[in-house]
Automatic annotation (TrEMBL):
Name the record gives this protein: Aculeacin A acylase
Pfam families the UniProt entry points to: Penicil_amidase
Species per Swiss-Prot/TrEMBL record: Steroidobacter agaridevorans
Annotated transmembrane regions: none
PANTHER family in alphabetical order: ACYL-HOMOSERINE LACTONE ACYLASE PVDQ, PEPTIDASE S45 PENICILLIN AMIDASE
Thylakoid as UniProt keyword: no
MF GO annotations: hydrolase activity, acting on carbon-nitrogen (but not peptide) bonds, in linear amides
Keyword annotations of the record: Hydrolase, Signal, Zymogen
GO biological process terms held by the UniProt record: antibiotic biosynthetic process
Signal sequence interval, chain numbering: 1-22
Family stated for the protein in its record: Belongs to the peptidase S45 family.
Amino acid sequence: MLTTRLHTLLLACVFLTSAGEAARPAATVTTTEHGIPHIVAPTYRALGFGYGYVMAENDLCGMAAMFATYSGERAMHYGADGIDLNYLLGRRPVNNVVSDLVMRLMIDDAHVRRAQRRSPREIDGLLQGYAEGFNEYLRSEPARAKACAGRGSLQPIQPADIQRRMQGLAMLLSSGLLRQEIFDAKPPTSDSAERTASAAEQVGVGSAGSNAYAFGKSLTDNGRGLLLGNPHFLWDGPQRFVELHLTVPGQYDAMGAAVQGVPLVMIGFNRSLAWTHTVSTDKRGILYRLTLDPEDPTRYMLDGRSLPMQRQRVTTQSLDAAGKPIAHSHDFWMTRFGPVLMSKSMPWSREHAYALLDANRENDRLLQQWLAIGRSRNAPELKSELHRTLGLPWVNTVAADSEGNAFYADFSVAPDLSDATLGNCAVSTVTGFESLLAVLDGSRSSCFSNSGVLPASARPSMLRTDFVANSNDSHWLTHPDAPLEGFPAIVGAERSVRKLRTRQGVLQLQPWIAASDPSTAPRISAEALQKLLLSGDSLQADLVLQKLLPACAQATAQITDAVERRRVERGCEALSGWDRRYDLESTGAHLFNEFVNRLKQPAGEDLGAVASLWNIPFDANDPLHTPRDFDATQPSVWKAMSSAVDRLDQARLPLDAKLGTVQFVIRNGTRIPLHGGPTFSSMNATLVPGLGYTDPIAPSNAYMLVVSFDASGPRAEAILASSQSPEPDSPYYADQTIAYSRKQWSRLPFTAEAVAAAAISPPRVLRLPRR
């Protein structure tokens, strides 16, 4: 009898325990090809838990380092002498202590508390769950945590750490580029006329960018929308893309990609809408040149009044060899605009200093915006959500829907300044950041606005049924037959020369958009769009070589230096055999890259913007075909050719090598050749002498997505060129890099039935921990 009663009691305990377990919300994770997680959960907290867990599983070491960076704790976990990298500044190193102090200045506790107060409950739950999921993996996999500890100590995270990561993403193309300059700011001493930064000279702001097309029902083969998303972004570091599919039934169902640590889809699609982003041309902030009080260089003049800078001390910690904390403190100098900064091009003298107003410092709406995007059912609804939230930091939006709409908008964050203010207050100082930040006079209150961010009502957008396109130029030529004009200059230039990538992007659509009889014109398909993206064609090469090659013989005859003459002869010979494409079998493409890079110096601008190189100048009435007629008579052209050949000789690379033999990455000992170059299909590898063009990869083809729609929903194919995981022991470390090399697209399963059919392992149930 006792045994029977004990057995009954045990069964009851088991039943109650199982019931209790079942009552706890859970995320179901199904993994499909290339390690893509499809996470379904009944609540946003459970969704975040599942996603935080699988992202820690995918890249625990990288995730931990990323959160330490944005939380200002790199020195504590990775050493005071360690470095972070400013990936968009040529991978310029930044000391961990410097990085921590600036992060804690620009993303302080007050900013985090404000973001938490403003967050809707869905975001609160998502961040809570994401932190819990990351921490649960950290706790349950001590061996992985120990392996990462060789690179730095790992700590659990809090929702505030994810908020800080989002704030860092908002300021990526403003304050995020200027950590060293903000730290270096110190007033001149009594025996010094001015103080300049100790850091290396400015190296440029990088080349983050993208291509995007959206086609509507009047051009597509099935009368529905069609999207190409082609962000050119980083292959490593905290801004690398991962693929994901997140579902809260009845509330949110979106698939695509996000950069590391962002707990929602950033670029992707839902059942009836597909969207992507391109880096926009808005000025993300203002560098104010301060006129200083002649009596005190820590005071600045505003409308004739002397105002004091505020000294703000920030402290962070590291550990000594014995594990004891060491405090690191630094005094920053703050103004009504923001922090004072300093570089060799922006010295702090007795007369002037520079202060940064970062328009995205107050932008805590990123997650709300991407949640709203993912919930939008069509392009008009998307426009309303972008207009209402105005939370995107530095990107355009391009979208297509199942109803056959094509949509473009630049609804992002920039300062609210009139054209008159920009014109009257501009300062001619060359800072190296003019493409991202306006440089204005800070001594007059008329040169700044107290209204904050430029409102959405003043921003450009376009809804059509044929197509819209953007390749990082301004809004002006989104559609060549309907230019967007009359918008504030701080958003971007109008009636100005377009990038060659923009021109190629529209010109290569001619078979579909230029038919004399639209009723008989071919209709564009997803397959045609995929081929177009990876064709390797180069408008830049066509425009230059049609004039350069015929001029080779005459040019070499005029070069008196024998060594230079022979280099030019060899360069011309190699380029004469090039097919003007960036395919693996194309010979001489890398030489052309080097040649063009030298033609663009010192400004590094798009070749089409170098007016002196073209005989027919830019014409705002013919922007797709001008400038043109490359001027091959200039001595600088042949100097550039000689220099390019010399560089490849020094690097021990044949001039006529096939691109695939000199441009590649190595993954687990295997060379993976890479197509693409400085053209529509972008690839920017680093020249390593004696080896070739390889890692690190600067912003390049990263996540390529093509989405069409049929009666059953979205039909999506993608390539994540960098692959899902950065860990060499992962099966998803190089699989999509190989697919990119082979131009092999993968179908993305979206419906529950398609996901179940494509699963490569049984679904996992991840239950939330008890509170």
